[in-house]
Amino acid sequence: MNKKVDLSQENAIVATVMPPVAYSVTDKALADLALKYADVPDANTPEGMEEIKEGLRELVPLRTGIEKARKLLKADSLDYGRKVDDEAKRITASLTSIEKPYADAKQAVKDEEERVAEEKQLAELRRTELIEARLGELNAMGENLINAPVDALTLRLEEIESIVMSEDNFEEYFDTAKEVQIAVRDAVSTALISRREMDEQKAEQKERQRLQDEQQARLDAQQAEIDKQALEAKEAREKEKSEQQARRDALEREEREAKERRESEERERQQLKEKAEAERKEAEAKVEAERVAKEAKEKEEEDKRLADIAEKKRLKDLRPEAENLRAFVQELLAYHSDMARPLVKDDSLREVLSTFDDDIVKAVERVLDKTE
Questions:
Q1: Would you kindly state where each structural domain of the chain is located, as residue ranges?
Q2: Which of 154, 157, 223, 244 is deepest in the core (most CB within 10 A)?
Q3: Dist CA 283 CA 369 (whole Å)
Q4: What is the DSSP letter of 343?
Q5: CA distances from 290 to 13, 276, 287 (A)
Q6: For residue 170, what pLDDT is reported?
Q7: Of 285, 372, 357, 257, nearest to 322 (Cα)?
Q8: Is the Cβ–Cβ distance between 160 and 181 less than 8 Å?
Q9: In this predicted structure, what is the pLDDT of residue 9?
Q10: Are 148 and 195 a contacting pair, CB within 8 Å?
Q11: Quick check: 47 and 41 in contact, CB under 8 A?
Q12: CA 327, CA 319: separation in Å to the nearest integer?
């Protein structure tokens, strides 16, 4: 193996002595300034505001000067710090590349040991789970015994007694398995005895109940016959009573229906009388309405005929004037059509002229239409 290289912490650190930090404002100057400006003037007065401005004119340049000096003094140390970090990263990367194969070899052995241990643990877990499952199956044979029938309990007891117990199947749990088998066998045997006794008791109780049911059936039949005879006698009495009541009800119903028929016939006669009177009045009103409508129509036709005669006479009287007016507007339309239009460049004026021409044409058409 190679000789060990001495790279202890003492040898890896290089000490660097930094110069003391000094600014132009000394502690004595700070104390003098604190004493000088201990009392703050009243800024609400002109004199006080002037003193505050004068103080700031001295203090602000000192403070900003210190900040500028701080940045200037720190510039070299920041650059040195970056160089220290870069060199440390370079050396650490080289050391890591040398160290990694050793660390990987160590981790591979550790991983293999953990894998073997995990496989061994899983195998032990599967073994114990298998044995516990067998014990669980054995225990389950002693469950649900309360309501099980005799045949099922007998079969289960035979299955338990037929199980061959061996240390290969239960290993360190062999003694426990034998105890479970004995306990389950005893439980099933006890349940079987109890079930047989219970079945015998049920059979005896069933037989007693059958005899009681037969006796009760005979008593019920005798009572039923007595009840039947009493019921038939009661029904005969009620039937006679009901028939008498039915005869009385029928007589009363016939008298009531006869009265209702008389009253109904009287109402029908009155309704027919009222209906005839209403129809008579309706017929008279209809005749009167038709007469009034006929007279109104005849008057309307006569008024229309007289109006037509008057209109024809009026038109005949106006014919010479109408023909003169038609001739005038036709001549005016022809003159208007032949008339030379003035030259107009403005759009609004051209629109006015066009509207004027349209109005003349429409006016002439209206006159011609009225004088036909």
A1: 24-118, 144-235, 320-370
A2: 157
A3: 51
A4: P
A5: 138, 21, 5
A6: 67
A7: 372
A8: yes
A9: 46
A10: yes
A11: yes
A12: 12
> In sequence order, which residues have a C-beta less than 8 Å from that of residue 80 and are 6 or more positions away?
16
Q: Which amino acid is at 1?
A: M
Report the C-alpha dihedral over residues 192, 197, 200, 201, rounded to 10 degrees.
Answer: -140
* Cβ contact 171:134 at 8 Å: no
Side chain identity at 220, as an amino acid letter?
Answer: D
368: how many CB neighbours lie within 10 A of its CB?
15
Q: For residue 23, what are its two tokens?
A: 């600014």
**DSSP per position, 283-337:** HHHHHHHHHHHHHHHHHHHHHHHHHHHHHHHHHHHHHHHHHHHHHHHHHHHHHHH
The three-state DSSP-derived secondary structure of 68-84 is HHHHHHHHHHHHHHHHH
What local confidence, expressed as pLDDT, does residue 220 receive? 84
| pLDDT mean by block of 10 residues, the chain; 372 residues | 46 54 79 88 90 88 84 78 78 73 76 88 82 72 72 76 69 74 76 77 82 83 82 81 84 86 88 88 88 89 85 74 80 78 82 83 80 70
**Residue whose token pair is 């404002």:** 25
Positive or negative, the CA dihedral 212, 214, 216, 218 is: negative
Q: What are phi and psi of 4, to 5 degrees?
A: -70, 130
What does the alpha-carbon distance between residue 364 and residue 331 come to, in Å, rounded to a whole number? 10
Give me the pLDDT at residue 44, please.
92
Pick from 325, 317, 310, 316: nearest CA to 366: 325
Alpha-carbon dihedral 337, 339, 340, 345, rounded to 10 degrees: -70
Inter-CA distances, 73 with 62, 68, 77, 84, Å: 16, 9, 8, 18
Choose among 190, 185, 176: nearest CA to 156. Answer: 185
User: Who contacts 188 (Cβ-Cβ below 8 Å, separation ≥6)?
Assistant: 141, 142, 145, 153, 156, 157, 160
Place of tokens 């004027």: 356
